[in-house]
Amino acid sequence: MKIRNSALAGIALAATAALGLTACGGSTSPAATVSPSGTDAKVSGEITVYNAQHESLTKEWIDAFTAETGVKVTMRQGSDTELSNQIVQEGAASPADVFLTENSPAMAQVENAGLFADVDKATVDQVPAEFRPSTNKWTGIAARSTVLVYDKAKLTEDKLPKSMLDLAKPEWKGKWAASPSGADFQAIVAALLELKGEAATQEWLTGMKENFKAYKGNSTAMKAVNAGEVDAALIYHYYYYGDQAKTGENSKNVTPYYFKNQDPGAFLSISGGGVLKSAKNAAAGQAFLKFITGKKGQEVLKNGTSFEYAIASDVAANDKLVPVKELQAPTVDPAKLNSKTVTEMMTKAGLL
Fold first, then answer.
1. Separation between Cα atoms, residue 59 and residue 54, nearest integer Å
2. Are strands 139-151 and 232-236 parallel, antiparallel or unpaired?
3. What's the maximum distance between 2 C-alpha atoms anywhere in the chain?
4. Cys-Cys with 264: which of 73, 192, 310, 341 at CB 3.0–4.6 Å?
5. Would you tell me how many other CB atoms lie within 10 Å of the CB of residue 191?
6. Residue 150: what are its φ and ψ, rounded to 5°?
7. Is-contact 180 343, C-beta < 8 A?
8. pLDDT (tens digit per residue) in 283-319
9. SS3 at position 176
10. How far apart are CA 70 and CA 253, in angstroms?
11. Residues 150-203: pLDDT tens digits?
């Protein structure tokens, strides 16, 4: 009898331990091993990444991660808005384990739908607070700075606007360009909304409609400045540096201007990464997020040709870029960037 009781006790203890491991691993695939702290000890299997970041950049991350862990990664490419809408539509049935974006509003959309798991603490600890949402439902993985690229032959720096808000003034009519239909520009407007409120943002958008010239894509807007079609364009910094690193043919006549002084035009847009609650291999998804925000992942940004800012694990930005601290960017919680309200306001202003 004593032997039978001991055996039953052993079975119960083993079952309890198994349940504890399952709780730690969440929706982890059976092939993945997770440490008691919830961080990755050893991962295997495969994951699917919905990628709205630059395909070449994410492929570098994937190749390095797979080489280190053996985890196979399938990438589905799309735009910020396209993929965030798809994830919300798919809900718990989404095949995605991880979602990466260029800008924060798409991440906030998925977060607001309650579809992200918490980011592992080890990953959160690698990313300074100013580069991730206050909620820690996802994290920053890279960043890009708002700049005004301008024609050096037409404008001198003393003639440039002191604030992005000045672009709505009559003296800038017909002199500047932007790509309002893109997620990049809409993120800039979302930051303006968070910083200055709805009334000031709607007023600026109305003035923008009167003054600016629309182009499809930031590269196209910069090319227009370079070709003398327009004096300046509001874009992200890396389009200039990326072109300069190649032939420079689309940027030889322009130079970037940084607004600084915590101006809305100094907004630093955070690219995001998160693991879905419905992930089939959550452990490997969390490991991937930890890898790209870790030293090796951030060095891909520092040493590569994306010219986006490294923001985590104390890795400095690419040497060609203005250091992050010198950008004097305004403080914006990326979890609060509202893409729905922004598109409604831009539509009201006749920009979409």
1. 9
2. antiparallel
3. 96
4. 192
5. 29
6. -135, 160
7. no
8. 999 999 999 999 999 999 999 999 999 999 999 999 9
9. strand
10. 46
11. 999 999 989 999 999 999 999 999 999 999 999 999 999 999 999 999 999 999
The enclosing H or E element of 239 equals helix 238-245
Return the sign of the alpha-carbon dihedral for residues 298, 57, 102, 185: positive
Cα–Cα distance, 121 to 293 (Å, whole number) = 12
Taking only the tens place, the pLDDT of each residue in 333-352 is: 999 998 899 999 999 999 99
Tokens found for residue 256: 């970037």
- 49 forms bridges with which residues in the sheet? 75, 98
Please give the single-letter amino acid code of residue 347: T
How deeply is 61 buried, as exposed, middle or buried, from its count of CB atoms within 10 A (0-12, 13-18, 19+)? buried
Cα–Cα distance for residue pair 228/129, rounded to 1 Å: 41
Q: Which pTM value belongs to this model? A: 0.86
How far is it, in rounded angstroms, from Cα 283 to Cα 291? 12
What is the per-residue pLDDT for 7? Answer: 38
Six token digits for residue 117: 């798991």
CA–CA gap between residue 131 and residue 313 (Å, rounded): 12
- Give strand pairing partners of 274: 99
What is 30-56 written as a DSSP string?
Answer: TT-EE-TTSSEEE--SEEEEEE-S-HH
Tokens 């004096």 belong to which residue? 231
